[in-house]
């Protein structure tokens, strides 16, 4: 069957399986996870916004990161919850491309946010006396806007290239929509898509990763040659960032691995978990990690919670 992906055709998810009455248990688990994500991220966003002592560059970038966690999880969880309860796992092409847009912009913005945060830590540790001059409020706003605008621009072009493709099938071997699955179904020429992928991938992945590696090399150099106080500052502020980066990279690695290679030998439940890891675990991991490890945030949260009791 040949269909135009931009028309009101339906795509079928083959990764779902009949779980019987267990689907209600899965629904409750996923709903609880989504509620936890919303609660944790909204709490930290509110804490940062209402406390003037947290109106510093590092916390403004954290706020942008938490907003992205809400955005990415909202692009997945409502759709996932409906699919768990449904007996027919289909989605219309427009809704599928909307989810592709949300998922891909989330991933792109996440890496860009982490890169900007590493640059901020580099300035704070390597140039402490010039930090507030180099990281002015105007520059902070510009970096946040650039992070989001570049992510939306790159993925908008990606969607505009994929939407007109003629598809030779309508079965996606996943539990949500992603661009690579659509391109694999295409029976029309995908040369332009491939060229754009070769150009955009270095911009989206290699540039942020290169910036992160460079900043951490400089931070390590300062730590080895600096004072004990400098090392303590670097460890306290860089540890949660590194943990977040490694967690996100771990999830993306398995998602890319699963998309590019045949993983039929892996149990279906494990495949589903790994494909959802960077979209479900990262939005929980970040607020918990930063909320518990950064003393200013944790103390403010404790005061807020104690005041409500």
Automatic annotation (TrEMBL):
Residue intervals of the G-protein coupled receptors family 1 profile domain: 40-290
Single GO MF annotation: olfactory receptor activity
Residue intervals passing through the bilayer: 24-47, 59-85, 97-119, 140-161, 195-217, 238-257, 269-293
Cited Pfam families: 7tm_4
One GO location term (cellular component): plasma membrane
Keyword GTP-binding (UniProt): no
Membrane topology value: Multi-pass membrane protein
Keywords: Cell membrane, Disulfide bond, G-protein coupled receptor, Glycoprotein, Membrane, Olfaction, Receptor, Sensory transduction, Transducer, Transmembrane, Transmembrane helix
Cellular localization per UniProt: Cell membrane
PROSITE patterns reported for this sequence: G_PROTEIN_RECEP_F1_1, G_PROTEIN_RECEP_F1_2
Name this protein carries in UniProt: Olfactory receptor
Gene (UniProt): LOC102204105
């Amino acid at each position: 069957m040949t269909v135009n992906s931009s028309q009101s055709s339906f795509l079928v998810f083959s990764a779902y399986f009949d779980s019987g009455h267990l689907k209600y248990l899965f629904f409750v688990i996923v709903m609880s996870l989504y509620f936890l994500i919303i609660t944790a991220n909204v709490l930290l966003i509110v804490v940062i916004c209402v406390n003037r002592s947290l109106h510093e560059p590092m916390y403004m970038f954290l706020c942008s990161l938490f907003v992205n966690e809400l955005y990415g999880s909202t692009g997945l969880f409502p759709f996932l919850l409906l699919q768990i309860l449904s007996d027919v796992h289909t989605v219309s092409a427009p809704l599928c491309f909307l989810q592709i847009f949300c998922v891909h912009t989330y991933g792109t913005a996440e890496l860009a946010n982490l890169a900007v945060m590493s640059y901020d830590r580099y300035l704070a540790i390597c140039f402490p006396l010039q930090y507030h001059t180099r990281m002015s409020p105007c520059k902070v706003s510009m970096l946040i806007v650039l992070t989001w605008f570049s992510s939306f621009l790159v993925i908008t072009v990606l969607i505009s290239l994929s939407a007109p493709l003629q598809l030779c099938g309508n079965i996606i071997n996943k539990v949500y929509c992603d661009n690579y699955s659509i391109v694999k179904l295409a029976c029309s020429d995908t040369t332009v898509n491939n060229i754009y992928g070769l150009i955009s991938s270095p911009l989206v992945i290699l540039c942020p990763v290169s910036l992160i590696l460079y900043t951490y090399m400089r931070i390590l150099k300062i730590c080895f040659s600096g004072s004990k106080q400098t090392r303590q500052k670097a460890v306290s502020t860089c540890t949660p960032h590194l943990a977040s980066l490694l967690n996100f990279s771990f999830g993306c690695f398995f998602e890319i691995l699963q998309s590019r290679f045949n993983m039929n030998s892996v149990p279906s439940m494990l495949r589903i978990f790994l494909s959802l890891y960077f979209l479900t675990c990262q939005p929980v991991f970040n607020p918990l990690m930063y909320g518990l490890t950064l003393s200013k945030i944790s103390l403010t949260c404790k005061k807020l919670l104690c005041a409500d009791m």
